[in-house]
Amino acid sequence: MRALCWMGVNELSVETVDDPGLVNPHDVIVKVRLTTTCGSDLHFLGGYLPGMREGDVIGHEFMGEIVETGPEVTSVQVGDRVVVPSFIGCGKCPYCADGLHAACDTTNPNAAMQQPLLGYPTGGIYGYTHPFGGYQGSHAEYIRVPFGDVNCFRIPEGIGDEQALFLSDAVPTGYMGADFCDISPGDTVAVWGAGAVGLMAAASAKIMGAERVIVIDRFRDRLDRAATKVGTETVDYTEVDSVYETLRESTGGRGPDACIDAVGMEGHGTGVMQAYDKVKQALRMESDRATSLREAILSCGKGGVVSVLGIYGVTDKFPMAVLTNKSLTLRTAQQHGQRYMPALFEHVLGNRLDPSWLMTHDLPLTEAVRGYEMFENKEDDCLRAVFRP
């Protein structure tokens, strides 16, 4: 089959690779119908996350049709149209039982590679480095899904492929970030980053009852989508002297009730601290440009929640004293998609949420290398490039 493979830092290629097969009796093989880029892919493409090997198939956000099932699979069958959360749960360990599927104790066969850094391993994820399991990814014609009964969700009639695709990762990540904020009616929520996850966090915050949602970014096309598609206020951080002061003034001096960081380690900003981060990251003395994280913690009102969805490595100048002295709550996780999928189906069917507009570029898999170039460089207002294998 054809698949998009990591061939080295900043080097991708569409190659011919072996078809996946059933390995365990609970496995499912899915014929991929749609698969999309994700900002977190850029971390290992740029060499900021180690653990990729030449020939690895990348991609973790997808939907498709089941074409083969193992003998122990009972809840889905061949022909089902399904969406699959990016992190793999077993459904039986204590973490999966608590709805923390991204922390699954069973699905990461390379747990020992993570333990020196994390202490305890995450669950496995498709196409996202060997420390995260070494699973082959979804930018391919077929993919093996372990624990098919737990990880394959049959898509209800009335939900299109383009809507279901983003329920795999971007939507549940954003929804979880808003859920972390314990939003009450009348709350103000600020979201850093107007990529797909940030926009879905903003949309979710409004669904959960936030009175005001303010999205911060520097790209006009993305801020315009936040305003027109989600109905948020926007701040272009390149046009203000201080994001903190702007948010403080617009909230009567109190600050937002909750702040969501949907940017991560390759964030941009202005000022001396951004220059400091760029130099240290270039010298591999730290992995993160954490301007948005520091701004979110500084800007959040006293007693508020800082919800971190962006992926970070080793962060320098982390303002722990600000968290403590303002009585802030910091919440973060990789996304637990299985936990939220039933609610997300209901929101889409109820016309409260339509993520299909995240797809700005619809390409065949053979053009995936070009799709990633457009996505990374934000060419042609690319928000998400979607591939059809």
Beta-strand segment tally:
18
Helix percent reads 25-40%
Q: Proportion of β residues?
A: 15-25%
Low-confidence stretches: none
Helical segment count: 14
Structural class: alpha/beta
Largest sheet: 7 strands, mixed
Which SSEs are present, and which pair or pack?
Layout (H helix, E strand, L loop, with lengths): L1 E7 L2 E6 L11 E9 L4 H5 L10 E2 L4 E8 L11 E4 L2 E2 L5 H4 L13 H8 L5 E2 L16 E4 L2 H4 L1 E2 L6 H5 L4 H10 L8 E5 L3 H12 L4 E6 L2 H11 L2 E4 L6 H8 L7 E4 L10 H11 L8 H9 L5 E4 L11 H6 L3 E4 L4 H13 L11 E4 L3 H10 L7 E4 L1
Helix pairs in contact: 6-7, 6-13, 9-11
Notes on the structure:
By secondary structure, the chain is α/β, with parallel strands linked by helices. The protein is about 30% helix and about 20% strand. It has 14 helices and 18 strands. The protein has helices at about 40-45, 95, 110-120, 150, 160-165, 170-180, 195-205, 220-230, 245-250, 270-280, 290-300, 320-325, 335-350, 370-375, and strands spanning about 1-10, 10-15, 30-35, 55, 60-70, 80-85, 85-90, 125, 140-145, 155, 190, 210-215, 235, 260, 305-310, 330, 360-365, 385-389. The strands form 4 sheets. Strands 3, 5, 6, 9, 10, 17 and 18 form a 7-stranded mixed beta sheet that branches. A 6-stranded parallel beta sheet has the order 13-12-11-14-15-16, sandwiched between helices. Helix 7 (about 195-205) links the parallel strand 11 and strand 12. Helix 6 (about 170-180) crosses helix 7 (about 195-205), helix 6 crosses helix 13 (about 335-350) and helix 9 (about 245-250) packs parallel to helix 11 (about 290-300). The radius of gyration is 20 Å and the shape is globular. The N and C termini lie close together (about 10 Å). The mean pLDDT is about 95.
